């Protein structure tokens, strides 16, 4: 274990935050950075949304620049980790909607502590004690005392106390009761309500000859829990008290006396009610191991409860029954099973009284001996199983109270509950553990199809079987039905079935059999929803993108945000959708298809129109934060419209919503919402230019152009043509765009609006430059500058001047180009277009370098980099570093130049920019010189 972390980085949270590089402690810096790093370490290898980071670091009063500050912290932490360990044993990844620390868990002290505690279970007492002491030795003080934001660390405190209790138990077995009395007194004073510590102290006192003190310890604990909590001590502690009172000989031996299961007596039945396990059970290795650990670590004087929950058809019952059969020998007194039919499509729910009667019969109670009253049945059931170790599987449960009536008391029994609901009340009041099932992996899905069909289809038609699994959404029920269809119809190939499933309108009907089906399973959950949740479920199915937000639901359903969020949370509780991050709810593909089938055409069109209007307002607000606009489009939102406060927040919003926006364009086009489609395409163009998403843009641009033409909206057509040009220009792909540029200019001339003439004259000029017609291009740009000045279109003037400078630079007129570029820079700055200002600063730096003004070039390049970093402008930062690297190289500062060019290359490659090739060539040339 230790060998794995001798080199590289190690992270410690079991005390003040600590980062070690090859054993040397790093200085982390300001409190905010420590708070951020602590969150990433605690959630290692999981994404921490940036909203959670902001909330944790600043609580209810984040500054307006909170996201920018977080980006800065992340950048500095990355540099710190990279410098400390260039091999990259730990990296901070940007993974929307936030960040994650990618690291081998063995480099985390709390992970090693957990593994040592888990590894101690079941070992002989000397080994247990040693492993637990080693685990406790990893604590260096109070967890994360030096970080802000009140990180959630209660599980680590619980882990420490559990390790202490386990270590003391092992040492009691080794006869060290005298040495432990003082420590236990202090621990009980610090944690007065931990029954296990009280029990340990009673044993230590009794074995040390202090019987009266052992009884007094129990009485003091009894008074405290009755007076302060209104409850009695647990059954284990009560039994120990009775043992002390009667001087039970078992207490005198050092070993911990387990509760021995009562062997069956003549006339007493050992029930074995589990249904047959499905043959060829596939996957769920992690879930089975989780249940194994829960069973192995259970308290043998109490009942362990696990709630297995998940979506319809996910395989909850199959998992519970399979595990029960595999671990049957752990429950010598019987296996009890009952289905409550809480979500059965064609059966009435079963009442607890009926289940109790069945259980009592199975346990040997004759029919005339079963009480009529529910409370009496509960009492008899508990009395019979009180000292038996049984497994109780309660399938398809609905009500937590029903489950409580069937919980066996003590003796190390285990209860498995399956439900489509989370049944959180059992966690709160009964200490239940929660296991939520997800869909199978692709590999498991393929194996399941092969298993059901009975032959290796994945070897005969590998691509088709993978597509089949995808269309079934890796849902076990859907996969079994699809495979059964192949068994029933041997003339079908997998490709035939894939063809049927590929039609969204018929997929659910295809995944249906005479007595079961995905649609039927979903229908039961839907019918159990109250009307307002049913409305929300249908609205969620309408949203065409990958995920659904409370803002979108509020807009579609015409409700407030708080209500929308609460309803989505309730649907997640019913496992009709999944909250993958805070405020981000995802529907399984088959669930989405089912929800859409519930909407008639009129409802669907009206809701989609409201959703389009919602996103138009949201996009317009977000794009204006990225940079000022002057295209004449404006949309007013309402209280449901998300309103980021900064440019970085706006970009983050676009990053998360981009899959939804592209899907919405397609859905709007299919529904004939042409005006909203072209407007949405135009509004997202600012984001696409900034993030360089040219490939995805091309996927929706033609929809926008077609939509504008379908409505005969000439302004829309010219704006989409200009947006297409803008994206192509950014991607360096203007060759062959002259025809579009000429068309856009003709339309602008027809409209007669100066701002559109300025835009299209500049567009036409750049298209001419790409064709080599430079002098002609210059005339158009000079005309555009004069027109913008006459019309007072400052941003239009600056844009043309910036592009005019590029053309003059190409012609070798560097001084003239610098004059144009300087003026453009000044106008951008005056008008608050910080993104364009950063571009102009970098362009001017490049011109100064070409003019031999190296100090001025370096100054502007550094300014451009800082502006870009502060505004989350990756392309601008990459370009600024490219210019800065070339200037430093010319000044003989090769090491610094290499560093800037290397970072420029990394950024350009991440963006997929063709400029990466130029930077790579420059970097290789510089490296070869060195």
From TrEMBL:
Annotated OmpR/PhoB-type domain residues: 1-103
Keyword Disulfide bond carried by entry: no
Domain of life the protein comes from: Bacteria
Keywords associated with the record: DNA-binding, Transcription, Transcription regulation
Xref: SUPFAM superfamilies: C-terminal effector domain of the bipartite response regulators (SSF46894), P-loop containing nucleoside triphosphate hydrolases (SSF52540), TPR-like (SSF48452)
KW Transcription (keyword) present: yes
PROSITE patterns xref list: OMPR_PHOB (PS51755)
CDD domains the record matches: BTAD
Start-end of DNA-binding region: 1-103
PANTHER family from the UniProt entry: TRANSCRIPTIONAL REGULATOR REDD (PTHR35807:SF1), TRANSCRIPTIONAL REGULATOR REDD-RELATED (PTHR35807)
Homology family: Belongs to the AfsR/DnrI/RedD regulatory family.
Protein name: BTAD domain-containing putative transcriptional regulator
């Amino acid at each position: 274990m230790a060998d794995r972390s001798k080199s590289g980085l190690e992270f410690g949270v079991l005390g003040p935050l600590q980062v070690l590089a090859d054993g040397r402690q790093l200085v982390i810096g300001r409190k905010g950075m420590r708070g951020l790093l602590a969150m990433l370490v605690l959630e290692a290898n999981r994404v921490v949304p940036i909203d959670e980071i902001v909330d944790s670091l600043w609580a209810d009063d984040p500054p307006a620049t909170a996201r920018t500050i977080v980006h800065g912290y992340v950048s500095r932490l990355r540099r710190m980790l990279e410098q400390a360990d260039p091999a990259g044993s730990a990296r901070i990844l940007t993974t929307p909607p936030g960040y994650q620390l990618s690291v081998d868990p063995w480099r985390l002290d709390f992970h090693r502590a957990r593994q040592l505690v888990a590894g101690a279970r079941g070992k002989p007492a000397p080994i247990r004690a040693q492993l637990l002491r080693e685990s406790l030795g990893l604590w260096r003080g109070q967890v994360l005392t030096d970080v802000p934001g009140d990180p959630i660390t209660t599980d680590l405190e619980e882990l420490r106390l559990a390790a202490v209790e386990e270590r003391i138990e092992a040492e009691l077995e080794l006869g060290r009761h005298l040495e432990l009395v003082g420590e236990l007194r202090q621990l009980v004073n610090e944690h007065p309500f931990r029954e296990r510590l009280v029990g340990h102290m009673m044993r230590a006192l009794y074995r040390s000859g202090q019987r009266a003190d052992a009884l007094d310890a129990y009485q003091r604990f009894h008074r405290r829990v009755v007076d302060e909590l209104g409850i009695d001590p647990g059954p284990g502690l009560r039994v120990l008290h009775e043992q002390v009172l009667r001087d039970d000989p078992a207490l005198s031996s050092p070993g911990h006396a387990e509760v021995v299961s009562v062997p069956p007596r003549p006339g007493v039945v050992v029930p074995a009610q589990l249904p047959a396990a499905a043959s060829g059970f596939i996957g769920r290795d992690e879930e089975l191991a989780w249940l194994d650990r829960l069973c192995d670590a259970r308290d043998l004087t109490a009942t362990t409860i696990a709630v297995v929950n998940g979506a319809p058809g996910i395989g909850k019952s199959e998992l519970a029954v399979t595990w029960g059969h595999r671990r049957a020998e752990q429950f010598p007194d019987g296996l009890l099973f009952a289905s409550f039919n809480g979500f059965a499509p064609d059966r009435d729910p079963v009442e607890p009284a009926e289940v109790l009667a069945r259980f009592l019969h199975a346990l040997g109670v004759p029919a005339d001996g079963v009480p009529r009253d529910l409370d009496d049945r509960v009492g008899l059931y508990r009395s019979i199983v009180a000292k038996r170790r049984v497994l109780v599987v309660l399938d398809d449960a609905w009500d937590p109270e029903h489950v409580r009536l069937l919980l066996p008391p003590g003796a190390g029994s285990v209860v498995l509950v399956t439900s489509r609901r989370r049944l959180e009340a059992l966690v709160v009041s009964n200490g239940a553990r929660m296991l939520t099932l997800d869909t199978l992996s692709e590999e498991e899905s393929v194996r399941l199809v092969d298993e059901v069909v009975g032959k290796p289809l994945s070897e005969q038609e590998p691509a088709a079987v993978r597509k089949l699994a995808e269309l079934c959404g890796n849902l076990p029920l859907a996969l079994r039905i699809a495979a059964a269809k192949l068994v029933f119809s041997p003339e079908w190939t997998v490709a035939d079935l894939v063809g049927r499933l590929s039609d969204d309108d018929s997929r659910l009907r295809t995944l249906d059999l005479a007595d079961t089906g995905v649609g039927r399973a979903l229908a039961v959950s839907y019918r159990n929803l109250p009307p307002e949740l049913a409305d929300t479920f249908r609205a969620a199915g309408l949203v065409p993108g990958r995920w659904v937000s409370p803002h979108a639901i509020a807009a579609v359903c015409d409700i407030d945000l708080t209500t929308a969020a609460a309803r989505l949370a309730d649907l997640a509780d019913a496992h009709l959708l999944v909250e993958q991050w805070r405020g981000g709810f995802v529907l399984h593909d088959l669930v989405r298809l089912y929800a859409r089938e519930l909407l008639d055409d009129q409802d669907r069109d009206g809701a989609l129109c409201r959703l389009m209007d919602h996103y138009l307002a949201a996009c317009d607000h977000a794009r204006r934060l990225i940079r000022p606009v002057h295209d004449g489009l404006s949309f007013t939102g309402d209280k449901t419209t998300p309103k980021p406060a900064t440019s970085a927040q706006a970009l983050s919003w676009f990053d998360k919503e981009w899959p939804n926006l592209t899907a919405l364009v397609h859905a709007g086009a299919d529904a004939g919402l042409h005006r909203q489609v072209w407007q949405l395409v135009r509004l997202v163009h600012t984001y696409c230019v900034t993030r360089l998403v040219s490939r995805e843009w091309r996927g929706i641009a033609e929809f926008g152009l077609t939509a504008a033409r379908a409505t005969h909206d000439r302004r829309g057509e010219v704006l989409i043509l200009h947006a297409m040009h803008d994206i192509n220009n950014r991607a360096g792909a203007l060759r062959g765009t002259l025809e579009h540029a000429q068309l856009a200019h003709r339309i602008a001339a027809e409209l007669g609006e100066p701002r559109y003439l300025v835009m299209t004259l500049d567009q036409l000029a750049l298209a001419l430059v790409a064709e080599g017609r430079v002098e002609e291009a210059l005339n158009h740009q000079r005309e555009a500058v004069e027109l913008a000045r006459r019309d007072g279109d400052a941003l239009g003037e600056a844009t043309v001047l910036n592009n005019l400078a590029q053309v003059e630079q190409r012609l070798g007129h560097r001084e003239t180009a610098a004059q144009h570029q300087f003026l453009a820079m000044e106008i951008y700055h005056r008008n608050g277009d910080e993104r364009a200002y950063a571009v102009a600063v970098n362009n001017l730096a490049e011109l100064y370098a070409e003019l031999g003004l190296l100090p001025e070039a370096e100054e502007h390049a550094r300014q451009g980099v800082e502006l870009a970093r502060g505004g989350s402008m990756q392309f601008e930062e990459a370009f600024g570093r490219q210019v800065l690297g070339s200037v430093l190289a010319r000044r003989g500062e090769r090491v610094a130049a290499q560093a800037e060019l290397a970072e420029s290359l990394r950024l350009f490659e991440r963006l997929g920019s063709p400029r990466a090739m130029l930077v790579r060539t420059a970097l290789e040339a510089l490296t070869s010189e060195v």
